[in-house]
Amino acid sequence: GASPNAFLRTAMDDPPSIFINSSLLNTRPVHTGDIMAAGAAVTGMQFWWTGASSSGATFMLDDATNKADTLTLNIPKADLQVDKTYTFQLRAALISNPQIAAAATVTFYVKSQPLELVLRGGEVVTGEGSPIVLDAGGSVDPDGETGDIQFSWNCLEKLRGSECHYVNGTRLPARLHGPVVSLFLSGGFPPLEYTFVVVASKGSRSSFLSTSVRVQMGRPPVPLITPVPGPIAPGEKLRLRSEVMTAADGALMYEWSAVAERSTYALALLPGPDGTLACAGTQQQNLVLREHALVPGGTYTFQLAVRDIYGEGSVQLTVQVNEPPTGGWVQVTPGVGLAYTDMFTIVSPGWVDVDLPLLYTFECHAVVNEAAAAVMVVLRDLRPMPGPFDKPMAVEGLLAHSHQVVVKVTVQDSLRAEATSETNITVLPPATAAVREALSEVLVGTSAQFLKNGDVDTALVMVDAALGSLNVAASAEDGNDGGAENTSRPPAKDVGLTPPTEVVHEAYPAKHFLDGGLTP
User: Fold this and answer.
1) Is residue 309 predicted with pLDDT exceeding 70?
2) Distances (CA, A) of 49 to 7, 92, 106
């Protein structure tokens, strides 16, 4: 998109080979708040970004604004021009020997985004004595170009296919202008149905939206539901707020209902995630649905009917539930290796979603019996890169389950819809307790080095590995060969790594560990 900050992420494997991950380039906006660091700093390397448009003009970059000397290139809002193609190149070289260098390029096209129309007041049943108010003033231009959005409206009486008439019989103009229209239309019995089409224009772009209004005789109440912008996150509560225009002085009666995928549901019967009711009540002015009450990717139309002494009016609102990422998987190589010592390459490609950026969390756990709780070990948490990356496994498979370990990825889009994928690998234990204790000392020193290089995630994994190695060593000395499942971990030997890992992560951030012993 032309308006949001565009950015290019990179990932490094063994320097100086390099590639650019362009999966985040999409015509859907990526906003400033979505920009995150592209991983740990790479020491001993220097970087240069350069760019040019399809016309050959150089795209001016500087280190302060564009971060052109880092792995993440940041292009501020509106710097990219619509309907142009750009090519950017990243060059990397060793500081100690600039002759050892590599480069990668990415090319993309900048496309303008359509105007996003938001319409309030449509899909109502009202009376000819009550005003019809249609408001598109909440519409937005995601590209943020200067100037105002222009609105025009036309109306059609649906049954006869004729022009619309005011309640006094006067014909409406062929086109109305402005973000808001307020008018009284003639009604009937059964109610007359009118179709309104609003066209929003700005420069060369235009979008349109239609809605219907049914007008009956008399002056029934006119309910309105505040629109919900964009797809909603399935894991959040849905709150629908309404207001009512009425000529009556007495109490109003409310009733909410819903239509989902062409099926009508009484909201009181729509189950929540644990089988309980999805909402607290349906006979009140506002509606609140529980978390996860709606199916991801589903489309729901909610209706509010309001009754007073003059009759009944109703209004509908359609809500789209965000769909989680799809199409991806997780892959680990090698498929067999040793815990704590061997490095496993993990990658999760193929995920597709329009709500970018995607964040990836990688975890692993040993396969256990159903009665036992699997202890999850986080390998990488909420990073914008799908890999590949190299990590040791800070967990080993159990003999009772053929040393199987599950590696799981959870992918989350910008609206917090999640999808997961798993794969099994075989993770074998080191041979003896003596080997494990020696290994733990090496792991502690290695984690200190990772901290110095700024790779906190790997440092914590190495601490986990050291603790795991010592715990299994203690079990071996007690006569436990580590092949049986345990629901509790034996206490670690005191080598300056207490309290246990679970507490270390919460109470002692990695930056508080000291070199040498990692003592909190």
Assistant:
1) yes
2) 12, 9, 11
Question: Tokens 């938001």 belong to which residue?
Answer: 118
Report pLDDT for 274.
44
Integer-rounded Cα Rg, in Å, for the chain is: 30
* Per-residue confidence band for 230, with pLDDT thresholds at 50, 70 and 90: confident
Give the three-class secondary structure for 100: coil
Residue type, 194: Y
Cis peptide before 114 (omega within 30 of 0): no
Residue in the block written with tokens 């986990």: 464
Q: Token pair for residue 83?
A: 């309907």
Q: Which of 41-45, 210-214, 334-338, 487-491 has the lowest mean pLDDT?
A: 487-491
- Least Cα distance to 268 among 259, 254, 278 occurs for 278
What interhelical angle do 433-452 and 456-477 show, nearest 10?
170
460 or 249: which carries more pLDDT confidence? Answer: 249
Look-up of token digits 């992420």: 9
Amino acid symbol at 296: P
Q: Can you give the pLDDT at residue 311?
A: 85
| Phi and psi at residue 43, to the nearest 5° | -80, 150
On whether the CB atoms of residues 318 and 294 are closer than 8 A, the answer is no
Question: How does strand 331-333 pair with strand 404-412?
Answer: unpaired
State the average pLDDT over residues 105-119.
87
Residue 42: what pLDDT? 57
Tell which residue, 352, 351, 346, has the closest CA to residue 380: 346
Q: If residue 180 lies in a helix (H) or strand (E), which one and from where to where?
A: strand 180-183
**Number of other residues whose CB lies within 10 A of the CB of residue 239:** 12
The model's pTM is 0.55
Tokens linked to 142: 């995601």
Distances from the Cα of 284 to the Cα of 123, 289, 310, angstroms: 20, 13, 19
End-to-end CA separation in angstroms for the chain: 47
Q: What is the dihedral of CA 156, 125, 210, 263, to 10 degrees?
A: -130
Q: Is the pLDDT of residue 367 over 70?
A: yes
